[in-house]
Structures are given as C-alpha cells and as structure tokens.
Amino acid sequence: MLRLAVVTASTRPGRVGPSIAAWFSGEARAHGGFEVADVDLADFDLPVYDEPKHPRMQDYQHDHTKAWAAAVEAADAFVFVTPEYNYGPTPALLNAFTYLAKEWGRKPCAFVSYGGVSGGIRGVQAIKPIFATANMMCLPQQVTIPFFFNQIEDGTFKPTDPNLEAVKPMLDELQAWGGALKTIR
C-alpha cells in the first residue's frame, strides 16, 4: 500500500489548514488506496533554511531537518493542504521544500488549496514548477476551496459537493502515479 503524506502547509496562528487537512485525510483513508500520515509543517518548527551543507548531500546537522527528512522520505506521495498568500505559495511550504532535495524525487503530489475567489489556485500554480525541479510529478487534479471561510463551522471544515466530487479523481490519479513512480525509485 502506498504511503500518502497529507501535509498541512500553513503555520501561522489562527490557521484553518488543520481542519481542512483533517477532512481530507478522512477522505483519503476512506479511499482505501493509501496508508495516510498526517504531517503538519508547524510540528517541525523549521526556521528559515539553516543547514550549512547543500541538501543534495543529505548531511543534515539539525534535528529539525533530520525529522523533516524522515517524514518526507517515508512518503510515496503527497497532498499539500495549502492556502494562497499574496498570490503565491506559503513561505512555510517553500522553506520546507528548500530543506531537502533527494527525498522528494520521483514522487507525485497533488493539492487541496483554499483561499478567496481563486481558492488558492495561484499559489499552487506558482509552486508546481519549483517542485518539478526536484523531480516531483505535480498532478493537474486538485481540490479547490474558494471562499473557504464560509465552510468553517465551529472550527470544523464542511465540504461542498464540488469539494467532495474532486477528491476521488485526484486520489485515483495519485495512486496510479504513486504506484508507477515507486517502481523506479
């Protein structure tokens, strides 16, 4: 069974990412094609990149980097639950990506994005070419949540029908690509 890391990419106080990630993780478990790991960037407390050696060397000096590298290495595929900040990706996600190199390679990823009118699409589109530099396969299938604040009730995310309808096609593709890419890692 493929190991899917559902990564909460926002680390700011007051964030709603964990509630959206909890919903999506439940959907991924129900799909049945993955062993799901919930990964929250806030738990790693990664400072702005602070390793003295290039990440391709994999000679990590800090415990936070070693823990992050182990979490990424363990995954066969990723779903990043991410907002859009100023028409781009979250700084926390970009920073976390920068910490590693080889651990990302030949693994597929997809996105559950949220925001205002765009539903976070602009942030996702901005980070896809960056992820591609590490030989990640970014899928076009995506769950997009515009005006997410209308879907938070008492701290819990309440999906709409379009949110729910987008999940299975994305997970099916992630499973197909994850299985194929695992054979060449």
Q: For the report, how would you describe the main beta sheet?
A: 5 strands, parallel
Helicity level: 25-40%
H and E order: EHEHHEHEHEEEH
How many H/I helical runs? 6
The name of the CATH topology is Rossmann fold
How much is the radius of gyration in Å? 15 Å
- Strand order in space, largest sheet: 2-1-3-4-5
Quote the average pLDDT. 97
Identify the CATH class: Alpha Beta
> What structural category arises from helix and sheet content?
alpha/beta
Walk me through this protein's architecture:
With 185 residues, this protein is of the alpha/beta class. It has a single domain (2-182), classed as Rossmann fold (3-Layer(aba) Sandwich), CATH 3.40.50.360. The chain is 39% helix and 23% strand. The protein has six helices and seven strands, in the order βαβααβαβαβββα. The protein has helices spanning 17-31, 41-44, 63-74, 91-98, 121-132, 161-182, and strands at residues 2-8, 34-40, 77-83, 108-115, 137-146, 152-153, 156-157. The strands form two sheets. It has a five-stranded parallel sheet, sandwiched between helices. A two-stranded antiparallel sheet has the order 6-7. Strand 1, helix 1 and strand 2 form a beta-alpha-beta unit. The longest helix is centred in the C-terminal third of the chain and has 22 residues, at 161-182. The chain is globular and about 45 Å long.
